Amino acid sequence: MIKDFKELLDRFTGKEKKRIAVAMAQDSEVLQALDAARAAGIAESVLVGDEDKIEHIAGQIHIDLTQYEIINEPDEHACVAGAVQVVKAGDAQVLMKGLCSTAVFLKGILNKENGLRSAKLLSHLAIFESPHYHKLLFMSDAAMNIAPDINEKIAITENAVRAANRLGYEAPKVALISAVEKVNASGMPSSAEAAVIAKMGERGQIKNAVIDGPLAVDNALSHHANEVKGLRSPVGGDADICIVPNIETGNVFYKLLTILGGAQVAGVILGASVPVVLTSRADSDSAKFLSIASALAIS
């Protein structure tokens, strides 16, 4: 069990530095996050993009580029392809989006011939450190898959479990979230899908995890809620991972924890052959740095 981001960082700090390949690195906030990672001693970076623009921006924010490898590529599509190729060649262990559009970036990852796709689908994993929870909490998917069907939810769950396994969780506790803890197949299909996935986990079809559902959020995160409702669950009150039924639920979950709940957050895209950092322009500098650190830890 990892209690906070400091402990997550401690898991790999001091080990051999890993490298990040950045597509269109001519972005001040991205460069600042990368420089924070370099200063913390956890990563080196390969900057793929317009070299003149990278140098101009770095000069404005006082970043010493002699610490970085730069691959000059002004064209957006070629830049993404170049960053992907750095990873495919084994010269970087994490891919990061810079100034390029999300659509072009994801297209480069999913390219059948030269991309990085390795799992059934890509999914977003959020990692929270909340002052109101006793350990780190993972949640998926708040950013990639809008209305996943049951097969996509299984893939999302498998991606999240593999990431947790990489972080040292031998059998993370997975809560399949619905609005209730009882199956209501006609009125609330997500509850029935959660029950099916939980049974798959029980029978070993989804490995290296303890899975239960449907669980409402209070059942997943509060022992007291389980006591009041008389619910016995191997996950209840102690979930490591919450799998939400759709992107609306995930989006609300994410923003409530960060805006009203005071949680620190990191976000990583899973399902490629390496972890992918795809941060929002609205993310804080801390969130960008923690996203880089989390991706490095998972890689």
Name the poorly predicted regions: none
Number of helices: 11
Mean pLDDT over the full residue set: 93
CATH class of the largest domain: Alpha Beta
Report the strand count.
11
**Radius of gyration based on Cα positions:** 20 Å
Question: What is this entry, summarized?
Answer:
By secondary structure, the chain is of the alpha/beta class.
Could you walk me through the main structural features you see in this protein, from its secondary elements to its overall organization?
The chain is of the alpha/beta class and 299 residues long. It folds into two domains: 141 residues, 3-Layer(aba) Sandwich (Rossmann fold), CATH 3.40.50; 142 residues, Isopropylmalate Dehydrogenase, CATH 3.40.718.10. It contains eleven helices and eleven strands. The strands form two sheets. A six-stranded mixed β-sheet has the order 8-7-9-6-5-10, with helices on both faces. The protein has a five-stranded parallel β-sheet with strand order 3-2-1-4-11, sandwiched between helices. Helix 1 packs across helix 11. Belongs to the phosphate acetyltransferase and butyryltransferase family. One of its GO terms (molecular function) is acyltransferase activity. It holds the Pfam family PTA_PTB. InterPro entries: P_Ac_Bu_trans (IPR012147), Phos_Acetyltrans/Butyryltrans (IPR050500), PTA_PTB (IPR002505).
Which keywords apply here?
299 residues, alpha/beta, Rossmann fold, Isopropylmalate Dehydrogenase, 2 domains, six-stranded mixed sheet, five-stranded parallel sheet, 11 helices, elongated, acyltransferase, acyltransferase activity, transferase
